[in-house]
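Our preliminary data section would be incomplete without showing what the modeling component actually yields. Below, a chain of 124 amino acids is followed by its predicted structure, encoded as tokens that our downstream tools consume directly.
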Amino acid sequence: MYGIQDVTREDTLLYPKRVPQNSPQVSETRPMLAQIKKQDILLHYPYQSIRPFLRLLQEAAEDETVLSIKITLYRVARNSQVIDALCRAAENGIRYWCWWSCVPGSMRKTTSAGPGGYSVQAAR
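Predicted structure:
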């Protein structure tokens, strides 16, 4: 039995490490909102970098023309940049609706109630 553990530690049994690539559709120098207004952008995670998506949320949280953000999240990290952006949006008066889960099978709905306020409800 202990011999199996030694075999599973071999690098030959593991897939090579993949590094997310930058999307050719996304410019690192132009604002994400401006790029999306010009054309739709499709990102493939985990094959492409999540940085453009995080930039989009951060820009939306600070943009006065954004009315609301609607998003579904699954297994959110403890120090999530996505959650930070949603909190910043709520502090700036942007309404958001977020379905999220920390563990499989339990979904929660979080909605903003104006600047700095939010409520959490369990979903069945």
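Confidence is low (pLDDT under 50) at residues 114-124. The beta strands are 68-72, 95-100, 108-112, 118-122. Preliminary results of this kind motivate Aim 1 of the renewal.
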